[in-house]
Amino acid sequence: MTAPAVRAIGRAALSAHPIALSDVLARAQLLARFDRAYFVPARVFLDFAARLTDPRRRDPFRALSIDGRRWFRYHSVYYDTEGLRSYHDHRQERRHRFKIRERLYEDSGERQFELKLKGSRGETVKYRQPLEGSALGDRPRRFLEETLSSVYGIEAPTSLRPSLVTDYLRATLVAEGQRITCDAGLVCRDAAADESRGVRGASDLVLVETKSAGHLTEADRMLHAYGIRPADFTKYAALGALRPSLPSNRWHRGLATAFPGRG
């Protein structure tokens, strides 16, 4: 039986007018943006999405559509040092922190090597390049070294290994200067352990992330009106659920909400 959150993002995406990827990149690429994450019950999400995509709005949100598809399978592999430098830097909110990942868009086969850094105002800044071959190969390594040197003035870690694997379904809603990603069916696995074991996201919650160049948007205020507040959560924090020995107090509430059966 399909999970309520998966059904909800499908219904919302099919109910909205479509928008092509080229138009998304023109209207709301947002490689530098402020992100806010929310755990939204499926029934609330359907009402929220219906209001945002209402064609009577001045600038209704539209659903990303590629070759007729409205939701997409994402597979990501995160990379970190043996001591999990990226994980701990984010847990401690260090100024110069970054995430390194390989992303596979399973429906198209496209692969990207991505770096997510924190800007001077606390915004997320994404750097990416198409990936062919290994994410630990020479070309990605040079990209990593050049980016960290030019943006932060620091050296790249010399030894990296896969740390976390994530899989989920995503639908994307887009308006001028705004993008909302809607994720369901999240499964996270420890790349250093038996990948058949992992944690599954709550089946009735949609992970909604608002992305904009500024601070609070209408979508944020709408979610607040439903009584839903931003969650201190990132998918990479799932390592704290997979490895109980890791300190994860900062994300304790978010992890308990995202993975209610993780014990």
UniProtKB/TrEMBL annotation:
It holds the Pfam family VTC. This is VTC domain-containing protein. It comes from the Bacteria. InterPro entries: CYTH-like_dom_sf, VTC_domain. Residues 68-237 form the VTC domain.
